[in-house]
Amino acid sequence: MRNFATLTRMRIQLTLRNRMFLFFTVLMPFAFFFLYAGVFAKGQPIVVKFFFGPVISLTVMGSFWGLSAALVMFREQGILRRFHVTPVTASDMLASSIVANYILMFPTVLLEFLFARYIFHVTHFGDLLAAFILISVGTISFASLGLVVASVTNTMQETQVINQLLWLPLIFLSGATFPLAFLPHVVQKVSLFLPATYLVQGLQRAIFNSLPIWQLGVQVGSLTFWAILTFFLSTQLFRWEPEVKVPRNAKLLVLATAIPFLLLGLWENKFGNIPAQAQSAYDSLSAPAKSSPPPDSQKESDSPKEPDSPK
Amino acid sequence: MPMATPIIQVENLVKSYGDVQAVRGVSFSVEEGEVFGLLGPNGAGKTSTVEILEGLRDLDGGRVSVCGLDPQRDSQALKHEIGAALQSTSLPDKLRVMEALRLFSSFYKRRRNPEELLKRFGLEEKRNTFYSQLSGGQKQRLALAMALVNDPKVLFFDEPTAGLDPQVRREIYDIIEELKHEKKTIVMTTHYIEEAERLCDRVAIVDHGKVVALGTPRELKTRSGGTTRIEVRLARPETDGALKKLEGVADAREVDGAYVIHSHRAPQTIVAIVKHLEAQGNELVSLEIASPSLEDVFIEMTGRRLRD
Predict the structure, then answer these.
(1) How much is the pTM?
(2) Pairing, β B20-30 against β B228-234
(3) pLDDT above 90 covers what percent of chain A?
């Protein structure tokens, strides 16, 4: 336990000394925030509030970039080897990176709340407890995903390729960039297989629709389960030595991280109403404001035949 | 002290990586307080052997015990008892010297004062320097200091002076000699003859995953029969056979284009060599005379030089 604590402190210290961190953890999220709040929402408080969940999700999901890169670098440079001759365990190492990331991410999220409050005059942030819990499990689960990526790739290059491949669907198909209600029906169906969708929609419902935690059981439950599974896998796949390559069956084990959301996606596609909820949230936005604030793609979303009507 | 059981025991150790057998039946033991050297060329299996003893790698065959523990089964307990300076490791670039010592000492039950280590290894002025800004010698001194943070019973130094310039190398020798006086048990690997001769109480010469000779440096050297080593380079190649028949010659062999001759009576042999060459119409390009070193033992055992 003590090793875990001192390692966490070291990770925080090292990250703060790293300029790349400033870019990925601070500047990029803020750039997204101002893009959404200032440009997409044109500064209207109610629309800023609508986009706030997705914006926070981007910050939260960004965790896996930094974590995977840091772990691969530590391994490639032989830094992990040095820790391996000490009593430090793989779980110490992995848990400390997750906790350090969590602690470092919080000020960014907090600043985003403050910007929304004082620059864009959003007065009410829905259910804060639900938002806090979703942010927490989201951060932990995506950070664990980063650790798994680091363990199944052999070089930094491979890591970055996999990160790109994961990142694009996660941000474009989940409603994090284009609201889910905009997306074609087929894409909505696909989105239900992605963990990101549950984070984005959950945060949006908590903040925009003030839904309390017990009404977000699917989102919180699935992400929590996924966080535990992914972390467990990262401990199983962890490698100290750069020259030890990934065993082939380990790569198969990675597919296990996809299983929970594969099953949940099937269930939600059949019985769920997440796209409908997203649609009604979006509709409620344009009704009182009497205008459709987001840009062009209004016409693309002319597949309003939702599978079921809002309940 | 009565003969206690050795602090390190290695019996018939085997380790393979895929099809390559890196260690093929290595056996030796190390007594407490001894400096034990594994001498051999790169790829001889020294590092694999040491990493198995440290609990970093699993063995494929044989038995090892360190401080009475099985490195594979009790690796967690063992790690509190050992200190190591590994090959090809590094620390995070933006970690400061003192932070590194503090961090690593925090991992152990038994600890040494980091301040004292800083002083002892001449790193006081560098205490707030980032790891990335240290010179090669400073990095190595820090690595040795870090190996001591838990006041370990056994120290492993894997090629402690590889890639360092001669002056820094001597600094490292001084440090290791000091540790030797403190009666620390040290297992070190090296491919430098000088290092093994100067620092080690006993040396195992390792080649192709096997121990080819084992003993004190003196024992090993007298194994080459108290002969003098004469190394000659010739204008044209010469058959070994002819040189072997010359006066006083115990052994002659070609090594990397030179001829290494061991002689019981060096002056007579040299005269004989010159005469022989004259008769052959061959010419002497260079001639060196030395008392035998561990390198000769190595050449004798393997037919190759140790240099990489």
Answers:
(1) 0.83
(2) unpaired
(3) 32
